[in-house]
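Supplementary Note 2. Why include the ligand at all?

Several targets in our set were suspected to adopt different conformations when bound, so apo predictions alone were not considered sufficient. For every target with a known small-molecule partner we therefore ran a joint prediction. The input for FE3-S4 cluster is given below.
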Amino acid sequence: MELTREEEAILRGEKGPRLQECMRILTTIGELNGARRLLPVWSVQLSGISFKTMGTQGTEFLEEMAQEARFQVPTTINPAGYDVGGPGLVRTSPEFREKQDRIVKALMTMGAIPTFSCTPYTTEYSPPPGAHLAWAESSAVIYANSILGAYSNREGAPSALASAVIGKTPDYGLHHPEGRRAQIVVDVDTSKGPIRYTVLGAYLGKQLGQRIPFFRGIRPDVDAMKELGSSMSAWGAVPMFHVEGVTPEADRQNLAGLERITVDAQVIGEFQRCLGCDETPQLVAIGCPHCTKGELLEIARAVKKKGRKLPSGTELWVCSNRTVIRETAPAVEILRSAGAKVIQDTCMVVAPLSDQFSVTAVNSAKAAFYIGRKSFSGQKVVFGTTEELVDRYL
Ligand code: F3S
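The joint prediction is reproduced in token form.
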């Protein structure tokens, strides 16, 4: 790679061992991927900041880094393991809190912005079109590339941290037009019935791996595209998608010679059946990725329609970020008065659910993918739309 004098000095260790380590991470990744230089970034999104995902080794690494390194660009952070700045709605052990608090302290020392959300694009830190980013949260990466027209590779937790400290990312992949080209055409046939975007994304994520799809036959709104993208990036590793007539770069795609597949409501309906079981949930958890304003209003409407307090046997969690919660205060009040927990700074996947629950209902195929895993919460999963879950279980 061609490095500037300053970058070379950092790589030689002249600015200390932590910055040297960060520069080594970035140049190694850059060389492996054929990058010719480092590119300044507009912002960084860090993932994996829950103690559940970071563990003791990760925490110690971060604390060492915080002794010396400071973030050079706006750096937003994913949800933590409990509602760190909230009223303590998520029950955890004191030991878990103490470990989580060490992570938060190290991040704040380095200059992180306390967003604690996987949807930085719903906050004041949403990037403009054309901005180069180093984001690690996969659902946010696919949203930024596809819907905002910003540029980010799918960073890992260490490379995003290194980018925050150096303020740059290796210039390859989705930072270039050729890395953003459609690689397969997906015709969605809605003639046999409606298709749920979160399920469509899960089904396709499994088929596509890292390939970039070009959708025809659908006109999703922004929240539907958030669902579609988050599922594709969790069930596969899709970093971007195009939707004909909808997404910003769709009309620049050349579809000649691309493989084509068709999906319909029957295929997606069958796939949906493998997402959940028939048990009765102790928790209904909405907001993966964190609720947007529109999604939060939708759940408030569904709860209001019930016209009564929620039953005591089942908890309802609505997970979102501080900005959205602040900007939807009347809907939040409806939810809280009905007995729901409107939860900030964490989510149903990275909080230690298994301490309290064994069966959890979700409306998101991404959440369904993770909460059933032993390495997360080992939950039995119930799956449905927001309205179905509120009607059936609350
Ligand atoms: Fe966000 Fe947690 Fe889902 S971080 S994307 S709500 S798993």
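The chain has 14 helices and 15 strands. The first strand starts at residue 38 and ends at 40. Comparable summaries for the other entries are listed in the accompanying table.
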